[in-house]
Amino acid sequence: MTQNLVAETLAHRIAQRTAKAGVIGLGYVGLPLAAAAAKAGFTTIGFDIDRAKVEMLNAGRSYIDAVGSDELAAHVAGGRFTASDDFDRLGECDVIAIAVPTPLSRQREPDLGFVVATAEAIAARLRPGQLVVLESTTWPGTTEEVLKPILERGGLASGRDFFLAFSPEREDPGNANFRTVTIPKIVAGEGEEASALVKAFYGAVVEKVVAVSSPKVAEAVKITENVFRAVNIALVNELKVVYDAMGIDVWEVIDAAATKPFGYMPFYPGPGLGGHCIPIDPFYLTWKSREFGLPTRFIELAGEINVAMPRYVVSRLEQALDRTQKVSLGSATVLILGLAYKKNVSDIRESPSLELMEILAKRGTEVLFHDPFVDSIPKTRAYGHFAGRPSTALSAEQLSSVDAVVVATDHDALDYRLVAESARLIVDTRNAFARRGIEGSNIVKA
Known about the structure:
The chain is of the alpha/beta class.
């Protein structure tokens, strides 16, 4: 087949919804995308190496808040979605989206191990007429410099036999105002035909598609979005430390500044950064910039400030314990409220709560946690020794028995009145009590 005919055939299948979609990685990005593709009318296969996840999904049970079990079960029953750990089925798919993690190493360097392994799995089964789309956030150039050579090893050529594109995920777990289908989708293909195909596919799945000139530009868009947030959060975290030394409430300052109708956008401090994007993705650009001999001062400084916030919280806790309870960290029992990295979700990826627990444990503190969304701590790469530790039930007796409570995640489901009335000392890193009009001499902001 000629180049044009290959592309035209795939375009026709996409337009007629007869193309089969495959999504590799069924986490917070992949599963909502697979559900959206199924809802749009594409027969969809979700791939994951975790057999337990595959079995759960095929039984119609979702483990991601953004995809309801009823919705998933309907897709399964209608034959529009199936999950599989058999990667030989990639050959069935006309469109393959890659939504696997892109973590950092301990040295804060990009770890593309999951992307490379996935690319190799696709390459072993690649056939003419397929569109491969990388969704995982990474440094500008990854799609064409890393993914493309792996896929072309078997002799098929990008733009002639298969088509390559990048479309960054923009998920915001816990945000009910935006879902996969309502968030504008950035897309870019390698070449005109790949661009047209990726635009056509996502145009059938989401409400709005924004096409840019190249995968490298699309990769830079995603990095820019996360650098923007990381730098601004670092700024307010630094202001919090400075204003605290001056006896000024940074949250009152931010709320007042936010009344300005132009030239200002509110960001809020916390105990550190969490999630898979903001604490990680900016360092992909930092790493890549070294290739060009260029420093990334803002990004690196922002990272240093944000990484330091858990230790700042611990220092504030230590001061408050000594001043009000006459108890040292080494002999204290502390309850962390909220394990998830943000409110109203169960996602603990890169959560600063885990780092808080780690620092306190090393100081000899007995550490407990309560989170209405997390029954027990799952296994993580950095904090595997916490795996299996259960969430402590929240009661007046439990609250009064600990030396301090640290609010790390301001879940709406928490009974803040009960906490305020029962706890001896509260260190609030989220301004959770003041926002609810709850005051008390036992509440310290940090």
